[in-house]
Amino acid sequence: MSKTTQRVTTAVFCAFLALLGILHLVLPDRTFSPVENRNLRQVPAFTWRALREGSYTAALETYLEDQFPLRDGWMGLKTRWEWLLGKREFHDVFLCGGALIGRVGEGDRWEQNLGFVDRLAEKTDIPVYLGLIPTAAEVWKDRLPHGADSADQSALLKEARGTGAVWADIAGALAAHSEEPVFYRTDHHWTSLGAYYGYTALLEAMGETPLPLGEAETVSDDFYGTLYSSSGVHWVPPDTIERYVREDAVTVEDANVLAECVQGLAKEELRVFGAVLEVEEPRSFHEAGTIAMDLTDYELTTSSEREYAIAALGYAGAGDEVVEMLDGFTDFEALGRSEMEADGVRETSFATRSMASPQKVRQVQDLGSGRGALWPCQEPEMGQTMG
Description:
By secondary structure, the chain is α+β, with helices and mostly antiparallel strands. It contains 16 helices and twelve strands. The longest helix has 24 residues, at 3-26.
């Protein structure tokens, strides 16, 4: 190599180092790497004590590594070069075509944990169900590179069948649908579809009939999981997250709305709400939330037939003198029963009644046994007044 060539090579190398230094000074420090899905090291605080102990220099080295200019691009280039050389395992993650599958190591507490389950099943009269979820390395083991070093999960699952617990064959259910996207390609979790098949296996083990799968709804089409972050293989396309919601299913949104409504109810309103749930029997959180948002349709009333009759007379415009005059000539209990039947009163354990639509509410103290009814109230006719 001539001196000119050596000088040019040295100059290019020095210019490259200078460029990296300038980029490090010019580019702002990043706090988070979306590719690696982790927080990045910031400038460490300098103290003489940290310098003497060596912790400062170690932290500074980590900082420089994390804030290296164009770090994500260099890491991707390194991984791609290793892939071209034939490497298929990157940081305990196997590249299997368009999917990333995490390596599974041998567990050191397997026997101990199975022993706990076995003893629990022996000491309780309640049925104990055991369903172990295999990873993609088991369900998609035919996709693993030849000679991939990963634990034999099938042997472990076979051993788990020997406990006294009722076995839920989740692995079998997933294996039967292994051609479907039961696991994410960039993450170690199973998908919503895989979780459904696991649910069906558990319900069948319990002797129950699983609910049918709802319609798929795409929540995200650009999801990258933990395997994508930890492997450095950043050319795999993103995952799609789907959820399956039946028309009559409970949703998180409905549950949140109901929780917020109930949280805002006063103590007496909670009694009213409990009575409404008892009688109306809403079929969903949405219906229950709708009721909780407008309790003006419901009021407290008495369960005493006599008191109900007196209240009905007052509602019709009869004052106390009229009620006293009728007391010796009227069967208030029979009148109360008749009025309750005409008003569609329904007894509850919360001393409340229901009105068919939001109208003026008259307050009637519960002088009876503490039980009450749901009553569709009517507007007063011409000439009547509210009691």
